[in-house]
Amino acid sequence: MPIPPAPEFLLTTAETWQEAIPMMAKACIRPSDNSMGRSIKLTHWMELHKKYIGADPDEWWKFVRNEADLPLAKREALLKELEAKHGWEIDWKKKKIISGPKIKFDVSAQPTNLKRLCKEA
Predict the structure, then answer these.
(1) I need a surface site. Which of 70, 78, 95, 99 has the fewest CB within 10 A?
(2) What is the top-level taxon of the source organism (predicted)?
(3) How many other C-beta atoms lie within 10 A of the C-beta of residue 9?
(4) What Cα–Cα distance (Å) separates residue 43 from each residue in 7, 17, 120?
(5) What are 75-102's pLDDT values in tens digits?
(6) Residue-wise over 69-100: b if at least 16 C-beta within 10 A, else e?
(7) Distance from first CA to last CA of the chain, Å, rounded?
């Protein structure tokens, strides 16, 4: 099972407190987030990164599974960026992503659930 982008570690280092704050917001993103939760978490991460680092995070697009994951206030601008910079296909009449995301939405994704390989005694 391919594991969607998620923070690798809960323990990390930062050179300054300004760098640490957006990292904490990014650490809250989980593969099993629903679209509303993912949208809120991406909004917080992107706003904190812009405030303390001065730019949008470089890898924000890796965490987008569908258009509902995008922050509502910046959805149209982010869809334009996905199309222009990352080559995603967007249906502009419906404002929906046609193709592009590397991960698919699966709220039940649990990479720790493994197939049982032995019989119970």
Answers:
(1) 99
(2) Archaea
(3) 7
(4) 16, 20, 46
(5) 999 999 999 999 999 999 998 988 887 6
(6) bbbeeeeeebbeebeeeeebebeeeeeebeee
(7) 28
Q: Are 56 and 46 in contact (CB under 8 A)?
A: yes
Which residues pair with residue 91 across a beta bridge?
96
pLDDT in tens, 22-36: 999 999 988 888 889
Question: Measured over all CA atoms, what is the biggest interatomic distance in the chain, rounded to whole angstroms?
Answer: 59
The pTM (predicted TM-score) of the whole model is 0.78
Distances in Å between the Cα of 30 and the Cα atoms of 7, 23, 56, 64, 92 are 8, 14, 20, 12, 28
Q: Which helix (H) or strand (E) holds 89?
A: strand 89-91
Q: Are 25 and 41 in contact (CB under 8 A)?
A: yes
